Amino acid sequence: MSETTHTAHGASHPGHEERDIWFKPIVWASIGLFVVSLLAFVAMRFLFVFLDVRVARQSPPANPLAAAAGQPMPPEPRLQTHPIQDLAHLRAAEDTILSSYAWVDVQAGVVRIPIARAMELLAQNPPLSRPAAEGGQ
To answer: 3-class secondary structure for the chain?
Structure first.
């Protein structure tokens, strides 16, 4: 705080603080905070147990047919139940599409070819130029 010490005669000379922080109030405040937190935890635990018992007492007994029917399905859209397997199936389906021959439109004569084969064909016969953009650009 202050780098100088004042003497009784008004002269000052360099020095240091002669007192430190008070340790006892910090310790007592920490202990008090811990005790209050512990009491709040215990009180909340008793409150939740009390409310749980109260709700169980006031609720009507469950219908025995409800357990036989099982859980109803939630409304659409539903979350994925097996996301890793779903992703594996999706990637397998995409790989099949990307690496196989198939008709896209038989009447128009449009087919799908594997990507590797399409790249080979483009490397053998590159287009001479880009097609002209429509609209006069």
So the answer is: CCCEEECCCCCEEECCCCCCCCHHHHHHHHHHHHHHHHHHHHHHHHHHHHHHHHHHHHCCCCCHHHHHHCCCCCCCCCCCCCHHHHHHHHHHHHHHHHCCCEEEECCCCEEECCHHHHHHHHHHCCCCCCCCCCCCC
- Residue 62, pLDDT above cutoff 90: no
Q: How many CB atoms sit inside 10 A of residue 39's CB? A: 10
For 3-40, the pLDDT digits (tens) are 555 555 555 667 777 777 888 999 999 999 999 999 99
Query: Cα dist. 66→13, 21, 32, 61, 76 in Å?
Result: 87, 66, 50, 11, 22
> For residue 6, what are its two tokens?
């004042």
The overall pTM is greater than 0.85: no
Question: Two tokens at 108?
Answer: 């128009």
